Amino acid sequence: MTDLVTPAASPELTALVERYLDAWNEPDRDRRDAVIAATWTEQGEYADPLLEAAGRLAIGEMIAGFQETYPDHLFSLVGEVEEHHGRLRFRWQLADAEGDPQLAGTDFGVVSEGGLLVSITGFFDSPPA
């Protein structure tokens, strides 16, 4: 059997994932709401083992609550975004204010025909070494 590899995402879809992470990192509510509007469909859905939200407004409120609980923590993309048939897979890391990794995960997303996120399902990976 030949090596099977999931293709890397296009630059546009990689930029979409980067905007998604930018929303989690943006402390200013108005700027965060603008990033969310440029990233998610109106009825977008998010779920991970601890959080869930449906709709842009609820996603913004969920992120604001996360930032209140974990101030000065930042998400970053780890490796390449993979894509096929409008589905995404990517890994991320969350670091504290000192830059020390606190959590890592893998997210799976569905993208609309218009290039916005329809849904993200997040999974937590082993804690970073």
Number of domains: 1
Beta-strand content: 35-45%
Cα gyration radius (Å): 14 Å
- Shape descriptor reads globular
List the strand order in the largest sheet. Answer: 2-1-6-5-4-3
Alpha-carbon distance between the two ends: 34 Å
By helix and strand content, what is the structural category?
A: alpha+beta
Encode the helix/strand succession as letters: HHEEHEEEE
| Tally of helical segments | 3
Q: What do the pLDDT scores average to?
A: 94
- Level-1 CATH class name: Alpha Beta
What is the CATH architecture annotation? Answer: Roll
The stretches of 5 or more residues where confidence is low (pLDDT under 50) are: none
Q: Estimate percent helicity.
A: 25-40%
Largest beta sheet, briefly?
Answer: 6 strands, mixed
What's the number of extended β-strand segments? 6
CATH fold group: Nuclear Transport Factor 2, Chain: A
Walk me through this protein's architecture.
The protein is α+β, with helices and mostly antiparallel strands and 129 residues long. It has a single domain, classed as Nuclear Transport Factor 2, Chain: A (Roll). Helix content is 29%, strand content 39%. The protein has a six-stranded mixed beta sheet with strand order 2-1-6-5-4-3, with helices on one face. A hairpin with a 5-residue loop joins strand 4 (87-95) and strand 5. The longest helix has 15 residues, at 11-25. The mean pLDDT is 94.
